[in-house]
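anyone else get weird line breaks when pasting these?? whatever heres mine. first is seq + tokens for prot A
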Amino acid sequence: MSNFSEKDRRSLESNPLVESVGPNQVQFTPKFKLKALKLHDEGLRPSDIFLKLGVDPNLFLKEYPKKCLSRWRRIVELHGTKGLEQERRGKGSTGRPKKAELKTEKALLERIAILEAQVDFLKKLRALGEEPESKKHSR
């Protein structure tokens, strides 16, 4: 989603079914979400639902209305209609997975062996680079 123009922001903020508008996101009220799900059950297309509820779907990426509806439906299935009233993003998240730590002694010894081999290789490479210069001086 891209940043909204000032005109688009004002339009979205004037809609009573829009809870808040940020620079590049919109938070809809639970009432909007429930109405949208009901209209979707009646057979309306996601972009038509947004239009009917006063939100221009062209302000968003093409698949945005469809993804919103499927996300809201999943929340209702898991948590009931009360689930739409509470912001759920980030709840229970464990954050970004940490890199695998080297915990076992065997893994640490393997890592040391790899690093020592790299150091030896670089020493030999440097020695090969310096060798022709020393031969030039000896002639």
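and prot B, same format (seq, then tokens)
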Amino acid sequence: MASILERYEEMLDRLYSRLPEKRSKKALDLPELQIEYVGQKAIIKNFSNVSERLNRDPRIVMRYLLKHLAKPGAINPSGQLEIFGTPSSSTISKIFMRFLMTYVRCPTCGSIDTDLVRNKGKVWFLKCLACGAESSIEAI
């Protein structure tokens, strides 16, 4: 009986050693978007910090936001996103949350610690660094 328990413990240890390493940051440490209005521009002050925390290229996040806002914009040299026009902060936040749900948050465990991986062609995958799940997503 003891040998079965030892074998079980050995198999359990082997299983845990093969699981992906968890990140130390929790999903709740995502900073809020700091939106400021200057003239006819909306500026997201902490855009580079948010993109870095999401582990996403700022150009991908910018392209998604600008496309869904139907506004032109650019990333300035200090890493802030300038949106030409004055969309409301609630509209920007809602679109940003849609981006998070579609291209960042793991559909299996809900973690935001994910990577966006492009395989051959135009197929994009969301790979979770917390649970190891992979799921296909639509092209950005």
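btw re prot B: The chain has a mean pLDDT of 86. The first strand starts at residue 35 and ends at 38.
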